[in-house]
Fold:
Amino acid sequence: MNKHSATTESQDNIMLGAAYAAAAFFLLALMGACVKLLSDANHHVMEIAFYRNLVPFLPMIAYAVLWRKTELLIPKNPPLLALRVAIGITGLIATFSALASLPMSDATVIFMTSNLIIPILAYFILKEHVGPHRWIAIAAGFIGVIMVAGPTGQVNLTGVLYALAAAGLQASIQIILRRLKNENAFTVTFYFISGGIIIPGLFMPWVAEIPTQRDILLFLGVGISGGFAQYCLTSAYKYAPASIAAPFNYTGLLWATGLDVLIWKHIPGWPVFVGGAIIIAAKLYILHREALRKNKDKKTQP
Structure:
């Protein structure tokens, strides 16, 4: 075992990472429900993204200043953090656009393909070897996506494309977050939220609407749940490997389905559950193959 691996393992806290992951995906489902309700009220996704980041920004900057934690505002790896912000904001807009176009359960199932996309990115960008077993699992997972998308055309194709884009960007973020292990979770979250104010803020003069009292509560809900979810997700990948933290997004489908039924009286059809089961099975198999590969690599190390 090399020095870097020993350091990485010593920083891991599997139970804490798992708890953060479980909390993150519950909060993300709650945020998704608020986003969809605001979209139903004709609020633009850029406006929703702006307030989603403005709400947690104010208490975060107050915490850093009042508790003299300004050192947390100095990143250790600015280029990688900047890349995380750019990809994260783009992914946030794609996510909100998908939620505005699709039932929550349908969008959530497609979001879960992020773990199918990680090996593809590793193959084409990092030039990592991806064996035939994982390629077959990836293909099977995307068959599940086709089932959810509905070949009959009953599902909004634009929404499906937004959801797939969000999944791809989330896959990229998972890789980046793992490489930001030595960056404080507050720092990563703060800069993501700052970027999420600046970029959507450029569009506010053209998309902003005067919110009702109900809308204000929903904007607060998006900001609070989204801010805490971001912190929890960053902490999950800080304390646990992706193979532990990532599978908790399965729970997001349970929350999304429950909220679909409770708020919109939408009961997902069988293709969503069958497609979701195929995607989850493919993801679990990919994680299994990756675990076998890592164990083999460890045994071959001198």
